[in-house]
Amino acid sequence: MSPVSEPDPADPVRHWPLAGLVVRTPRLELRPDDDVGLAALADRALDGVHPAEQMPFLEPWTDGTDTPGFARGVMQYAWRCRADLRPGRWSVNFLVRSSGRVLGMQTLTGTDFAVLREVGTGSWLTRAVQGRGLGTEMRHAVLALAFDHLGARLARSSAFADNAASRRVSERLGYTDDGVEQHVRRGRAAVLLRSRLTPQTWRRPSWTPEVDGLDACRELLGG
Fold it and tell me: Which part of the chain is the N-acetyltransferase domain (predicted)?
């Protein structure tokens, strides 16, 4: 009788299937965050995400890059998202890599996804690689994952009115207006523009992302 082999204790996919998920585009590889990659992500945040006089985020997490614990806070945020992830409410933070180097983060979120079939997106890239179309490419990647592989029917996004770069990405991909909100940003009122996208209005790229490792994640994501 052949001996029964034990599972590899070093294989995290057994208990955390997201560790095996990957989405590949012509220039990028997106994988859910891992601890080694998060340390590199914190370094990219320290390198700079936007000019100091701007604030593109609802939560001004990029303020205070010169304070002790900033980089650790970047990692702790991702750990909280990972710890809170469950089928009814999830936020998957994909580390965006090019040639093995972490460049930023692309987030895909879902609430009651099994019923609503809606996702949200958010992202950032280190300033050194902005302006090369990578933000568009990584958004296409998670939209393909959501629409073509998870069966999403709607994707939502939002950007402040003065965040021209993010708004251009949404317009380029086919998003349509979905209302406005007012928020307090650095002590002043700021207008947030919401947008929505369906599989029918999505302006698909000329390439098709490669998705591996998703089947093991479907129960966790409600897909």
Answer: 25-198
CATH 2.102.10.10 fits 18-207, yes or no: no
Domain locations in the chain as residue ranges: 18-207
Comparing C-alpha atoms, which of 111, 196, 215, 194 is closest to residue 155?
196
Extended strands (E) in the chain: 22-24, 29-32, 89-98, 101-111, 118-125, 154-160, 176-185, 188-197, 210-212
Round the CA-based radius of gyration of the chain to a whole number and report it.
18
d(CA 53, CA 165): 15
Tens digit of pLDDT for each residue in 181-198? 999 988 889 999 999 999
Closest CA to 209 of 155, 157, 119, 140: 140
Q: 3-24: per-residue pLDDT in tens?
A: 555 555 567 788 899 999 999 9
From 184, 159, 179, select the one nearest 169 (Cα to Cα): 159
The strand pair at 101-111 and 118-125 is best described as antiparallel
